[in-house]
Specification:
The complex is a heterodimer of chains A (214) and B (80).
Chain A lengths: L6 E8 L5 H16 L16 E2 L5 E2 L7 E7 L2 E7 L3 E7 L8 H15 L2 H8 L3 H18 L18 H4 L8 E5 L2 E9 L2 E7 L4 E6 L2
Parallel strand pairs in A: 1-10
Antiparallel strand pairs in A: 1-5, 2-3, 4-5, 6-9, 7-8, 8-9
Chain B lengths: L1 H16 L18 H15 L5 H4 L5 H10 L6
Helix pairs in contact in B: 1-2, 1-4
Classes of the chains: A alpha+beta (214), B mainly alpha (80).
Chain lengths: 214, 80
């Protein structure tokens, strides 16, 4: 497989008992091998790269600055995004509480949106359906994972909405990505199954290579 | 009051995540693996039920069950 370090590897795995860190280490190994990045600083005992965290909790490889990553898990899946430049990824299953109807779930999502989202985003959810909530949710999460700021008191201060809102209001088709720019960053979003939304936040468009079940 | 709040936290966690078996020392992320989405759902349930606002800056300080209980008591919650 030919590859360049400005590609983005997206590794989707079923949560088969392995931790998200194990999956991420494996994804990083594949990316490094394909991109010709030498992994000279791996722990000789475990064969893994050391992981450190920034003050806000964003994980990174302190001994291998050429590889950036982001991990998310939801439901039965773990997703790892690995790239040569900063990346944020979020996956969210469209869950409902026990015994909750779709209408009740939507009411709950609108409440969360009103409480935590930017006004523009909240308005979009107010006029939309459950899927629309998860479009905004995963985009916001991928953004805060990209920046490393996490979910702080500014979570409602920024908007991930594209200028052309029709991009988000259309019904998504599984595995067909939708892409837009907001806040100088690129958001790539797709359904990976009818009830899982995925969003990747990068600086500029990336060539996304999807790998399954490593 | 602490015990009533503990029961309320237990019920709320079960409602949102389907998980049981927590105590005062349980850590929401390390022990239960709660995601941001779970946490926001839980915050909304607490705010609705107790009619309080929980600022975002406080949300992420509440790491363990006992932190939530102490926080609610400090906020003047006297009835569940």
């Amino acid at each position: 497989m030919s590859s360049r370090s400005d590609d983005l590897y997206l590794v989707l795995s079923e949560a088969d008992g392995a931790s998200s860190e194990q999956k991420m280490q494996e994804a990083a190994r594949i990316f490094a091998k394909d991109c010709g990045i030498p992994l000279s600083n791996v722990d000789p005992k475990t064969g893994t790269l050391r992981v450190a965290r920034t003050i806000t909790g964003k994980p990174f490889f302190p001994d291998c600055a050429q590889i950036k990553f982001s991990v998310s898990h939801s439901g039965t899946y773990i997703i790892c995004a690995v790239s040569g430049s900063e990346v944020g990824v979020d996956l969210q299953q469209h869950t409902r509480m026990k015994g909750e109807t779709e209408e009740e779930a939507l009411c709950r999502f609108r409440k969360i949106a009103k409480r935590f989202f930017h006004e523009e985003e909240s308005q979009f959810v107010e006029n939309g359906n459950c899927d629309d909530f998860f479009k905004i949710w995963t985009a916001k999460e991928s953004y805060v994972k990209f920046t490393g700021q996490g979910m702080d008191s500014h979570y409602g201060d920024f908007s991930v909405m594209p200028e052309d809102r029709t991009l988000l209001s259309s019904r998504f088709v599984p595995n067909r990505p939708v892409q837009w720019d907001a806040m100088g960053l690129c958001f790539t979003q797709m359904l990976i199954e009818p009830d899982y939304t995925l969003c990747i936040c990068t600086r500029g468009k990336k060539n996304i290579v999807v790998l399954h079940n490593i | 009051m602490e015990e009533q709040l503990l029961e309320f936290v237990k019920d709320t966690i079960f409602q949102v995540t389907g998980q049981r078996g927590l105590d005062y020392e349980t850590d929401f992320v390390k022990d239960l693996g709660l995601t941001s989405f779970d946490v926001m759902n839980i915050v909304c349930i607490f705010e609705d039920h107790f009619d309080v606002d929980i600022p975002n800056r406080d949300v992420w300080k509440l790491r363990q069950v006992k932190d939530v209980i102490n926080y609610m008591i400090q906020r003047g919650i006297t009835q569940v």
